[in-house]
Design goal:
By secondary structure, this protein is α+β, with helices and mostly antiparallel strands. The protein has six helices and eight strands. Helix content is 31%, strand content 30%. A five-stranded mixed beta barrel has the order 4-5-6-8-7.
């Protein structure tokens, strides 16, 4: 693996979230309302708080759009479901990177969660890509295991009683954790020779 890829994969600030939980995310929050440049965080049903996410999976589709202003849309599958990607003019490095990748291809992606409420009440989720690089299946499998551990940690925290857990439960109307435990099991089952975590 190249030094650039190693550096990319060490960016720990971005959070690992499986696709079904990301798609079910409905809440965003800006914790510093007085700072216009303060990041906006997505709050997931298991209590993760993410201004950036890190995902690894198969880029299954990519589509180049626009004439004067070029942008891309695409999908990445992490074995549990799809994430929708958008790459626009304000991410020139990502635009260059996605242009060099041919789907299907294993990729690692860092980007900002975009949670959009439609006028009819539906919620659309996507990732505004900051970086996207090709990786191998081993990297994807390691990401699945790391994300499984992180998700299980959050599920266990949601069983406790503290201020943050109470707030998340209120925001999501007391979400059931069984579905996210099932996602973890599904992800592990699809990773060959994975150790038992659940």
């Amino acid at each position: 693996m190249s030094d650039d890829k190693k550096k990319f994969l060490r960016r720990e600030a971005a959070k690992r979230i499986f696709a079904p939980e990301f798609r079910n995310t409905r809440v965003t929050r800006k914790f510093d309302e007085h700072d216009e440049k303060a990041p906006i965080f997505a709050i997931t049903p298991t209590g993760e708080c993410a201004s950036r996410v890190f995902i690894v999976g198969v880029l299954t589709t990519k589509e180049k759009r626009g004439t004067d202003t070029i942008y891309y849309i695409g999908k990445v599958n992490d074995t549990t479901g799809d994430y929708h990607l958008t790459i626009g003019q304000y991410q020139p490095e990502a635009l260059h990177q996605i242009a060099q990748i041919t789907a299907p291809e294993f990729v690692a992606v860092v980007g900002k969660p975009n949670i959009y409420q439609t006028p009819d009440g539906n919620t659309l989720t996507s990732i505004r890509v900051e970086e996207i690089v090709p990786v191998d299946k081993e990297t994807r499998d390691m990401w699945v295991l790391d994300t499984a551990r992180a998700t299980l940690d959050r599920i266990r925290r949601m069983e406790r009683e503290d201020e943050w857990v109470t707030e998340v439960k209120t925001l999501y109307n007391n979400p059931g954790m069984r579905q996210y435990h099932d996602v973890v099991e599904k992800a592990i089952d699809r990773v060959v020779t994975a150790p038992t975590l659940v």
